[in-house]
């Protein structure tokens, strides 16, 4: 099966690192990110948040740790014959740092696609992705709407979204994700 995998929040444990950096930069003490649009939690204009990320992209994308169980989960799926295709909202300009992070973290990677903050749906269709692993509820809903089952890794910023498509399965860990993929019966295309 061809499996799409998001990077930030799914493979790269970006948000705890970003929260630490954002607290320091903006002089805040935010303990939990409750909104994917982090500027809301930090009570700063979106433009200030964007400027911070653009000016510090190299460090912010290279320094995070790996999400617990992600490396082992990806390796298990590959060993079982699945093809992993990373589909990230990062921009094509962030390709080098992304590939270096994956290599440094010893995460197997052959195909890494960059949607550049556009919908991931076109890449999912173009690459014939049959299941997807995501953390952002909006992406999960869009991908599920085209008939692709989505495994939504539960995070502090997607907890408030219980009205999810039946094609979306909430998972608390990579172990649950791998088990869910094993339960899929054959390719499911939309």
TrEMBL record:
InterPro entries: 5'(3')-deoxyribonucleotidase (IPR010708), 5_3-deoxyribonucleotidase-like (IPR052419), HAD-like_sf (IPR036412), HAD_sf (IPR023214), Nucleotidase_putative (IPR009206). Its EC number is 3.1.3.-. The active site is at 6 (nucleophile), 8 (proton donor). It comes from Desulfosporosinus acididurans. This is Nucleotidase. It holds the Pfam family NT5C. Keywords: Hydrolase. Belongs to the 5'(3')-deoxyribonucleotidase family. GO terms for biological process: deoxyribonucleotide catabolic process. GO terms for molecular function: 5'-nucleotidase activity. It is an enzyme of class 3 (hydrolase). The keyword Nucleus does not apply.
């Amino acid at each position: 099966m061809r499996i799409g995998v998001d990077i930030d929040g799914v493979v790269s444990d970006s948000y705890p690192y970003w929260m630490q950096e954002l607290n320091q930069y903006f002089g805040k003490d935010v303990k939990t990110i409750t909104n994917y649009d982090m500027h809301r939690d930090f009570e700063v204009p979106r433009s200030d948040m964007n400027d911070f990320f653009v000016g510090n992209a190299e460090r912010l994308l290279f320094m995070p740790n790996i999400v617990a169980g992600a490396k082992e989960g990806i390796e298990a799926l590959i060993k079982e014959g699945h093809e992993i295709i990373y589909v990230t909202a990062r921009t094509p300009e962030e390709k080098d740092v992304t590939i270096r992070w994956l290599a440094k973290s010893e995460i197997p990677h052959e195909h890494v696609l960059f949607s550049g903050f556009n919908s991931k749906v076109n890449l999912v269709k173009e690459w014939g992705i049959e299941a997807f692993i995501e953390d952002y509820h909006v992406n999960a809903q869009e991908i599920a709407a085209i008939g692709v089952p989505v495994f939504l890794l539960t995070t502090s910023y997607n907890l408030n979204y219980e009205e999810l498509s039946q094609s979306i399965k909430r998972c608390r860990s990579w172990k649950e994700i791998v088990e869910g993929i094993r339960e899929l019966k054959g390719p499911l295309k939309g």
